[in-house]
């Protein structure tokens, strides 16, 4: 459904840049964030509009860029990723302040606001680009994510079965086209935003209201 909506958007949108920024190596992004005592987390949980909208509302999150990671095709476009043949996942690169929010809390929000039990699918969005994935930026993130996933599966935390979330080392991050950035906030009345993104935001607010940014 979202792909049909976006085809219309792309036809109606002219002079759209191929990417919002230059591709960024994982080590480069981590180093840049560390200089300001910020940290980087990279999550894929279906459509990046959903992931962005949820984490934008979490206290301690300073910046989010939607983009692509995990494939072997350089400089992918949205149209290319939508084919499901690039190997890239739709992800959000999250810059956060570890003095305000922990990586464990980011993981909790991640796992509680999407279905990690469906491989290469979130709702009606189907394809490898929609897979549940955590791209870790250091050994600590890897250990925390792996242990958290193991704990959830041991406790049978999900009615749909065990979490199948991929946990892989971060690779080159390719920012998505400009029109994907801050999408839900700028297009709250769009159909997909109303029926798919908004319920996820509502779920986040219901579960994590005490951790949400004060508006």
Q: Averaging pLDDT over every residue, what do you get?
A: 90
How is the largest sheet built, in terms of strand order? 7-6-1-3-2-8
CATH-assigned homologous superfamily: Peptide methionine sulphoxide reductase MsrA
N- and C-termini, Cα separation: 31 Å
CATH fold-level name: Peptide Methionine Sulfoxide Reductase, Chain A
Query: Can you tell me the residue ranges where pLDDT is under 50 for at least 5 consecutive residues?
Result: 7-20
| Biggest sheet features | 6 strands, mixed
CATH class: Alpha Beta
Write down the Rg. 16 Å
The beta-strand count equals: 8
Structural class by SSE content: alpha+beta
SS summary, helix count: 8
Gross morphology = globular
* Annotated CATH architecture: 2-Layer Sandwich
- Our estimate of the beta-strand percent is 15-25%
What number of domains?
1
* Proportion of residues in helical segments: 25-40%
| SSE pattern | HHEHEHEHEEEHEEHH
Pfam families: PMSR
Catalytic activity: L-methionyl-[protein] + [thioredoxin]-disulfide + H2O = L-methionyl-(S)-S-oxide-[protein] + [thioredoxin]-dithiol; [thioredoxin]-disulfide + L-methionine + H2O = L-methionine (S)-S-oxide + [thioredoxin]-dithiol
Protein name: Peptide methionine sulfoxide reductase MsrA
Keywords: Oxidoreductase, Signal
